[in-house]
UniProtKB/TrEMBL annotation:
It comes from the Bacteria. Residues 75-188 form the Type II secretion system protein GspF domain. Keywords: Cell membrane, Membrane, Transmembrane, Transmembrane helix. It is a multi-pass membrane protein. It is found in: Cell membrane. The keyword Acetylation does not apply. InterPro entries: T2SS_GspF_dom. The chain crosses the membrane at residues 20-49, 198-222. This is Type II secretion system F family protein. It comes from Saccharothrix lopnurensis. Coiled coil: none annotated.
Length: 234
């Protein structure tokens, strides 16, 4: 939220389109090139949609790890001053970014009423390491601050490694995108040279089939290259 004259103003965002909407838009745009163009447009649109969702998911996971590490840092600092876990978690949650704030508030609520913190964290898949660390401290008498500090360091290392790998994979991803665009560049070059490939692709049955086959090959290449670059990212 943003502040306007001392009052919070909520910024509304349009919801992300789902797969059916993306397919419909891609098919509608491709329909200008015939039935084959509609199929090719739908396939290309779905592939682009999947790639965008995967990119958004990677960035969200990285932000989650960074937020949890920062929240745990504040939590551990409060514990080392002698604060009760419930109080320490509540104080750390005040300035924590989502979803760390929700995780810390769940810890505070469970600790305040003497409940099972591990059970309280069951609804947060990103906090499974934290739940196991809490159980370790409870069962073996390990100082809670030390265990949580180890979890924080692990999250920091994972986030740093992920950023480094993503930076190194930027080049291969860009190369894959350029290679995927070469057929379109070839069609454009053919039009400029007077060969008229668009007339063949749009006006003949064989051209319509080639449109669909070409789109499928481009999408298969993009998906395969994306799978190869994702395998090295934790």
């Amino acid at each position: 939220m943003a502040l306007l004259r001392g009052r919070p103003v909520r910024r509304w965002r349009l919801p992300a389109p789902g797969r059916p909407v993306v397919v419909a838009v891609g098919a509608a745009v491709g329909l200008l090139a015939g039935v084959g163009g509609a199929i090719a447009g739908a396939v290309l649109a779905v592939t682009a949609w999947h790639g965008h969702r995967e990119t958004v998911g990677r960035r969200a996971r990285l932000r989650t790890s960074a937020a949890l590490a920062e929240g745990l840092n504040a939590f551990v600092a409060e514990l080392r001053t002698g604060a009760h876990p419930a109080r320490a978690a509540a104080c750390a949650a005040e300035d924590a970014e989502p979803p760390a704030g929700e995780v810390l508030r769940a810890i505070a609520a469970a600790s305040a009423r003497g409940g099972d913190v591990e059970v309280a964290l069951a609804g947060f898949p990103d906090a499974r390491h934290l739940a196991r660390a809490w159980r370790l401290a409870a069962e073996h008498g390990v100082p809670l601050a030390d265990v949580l500090e180890a979890v924080r360091r692990d999250l920091d290392r994972r986030a740093t490694f992920t950023r480094q790998v993503q930076a190194r994979m930027a080049g291969p991803r860009a190369s894959a995108a350029v290679l995927a665009g070469l057929p379109l560049f070839g069609v454009l070059l053919g039009e400029l040279s007077g060969a008229g490939p668009l007339a063949v692709l749009i006006g003949t049955g064989a051209g319509q089939v080639l449109l669909v086959v070409g789109a499928l090959l481009i999408c298969a290449g993009l998906r395969w290259s994306g799978r190869l670059t994702r395998q090295v990212i934790p």
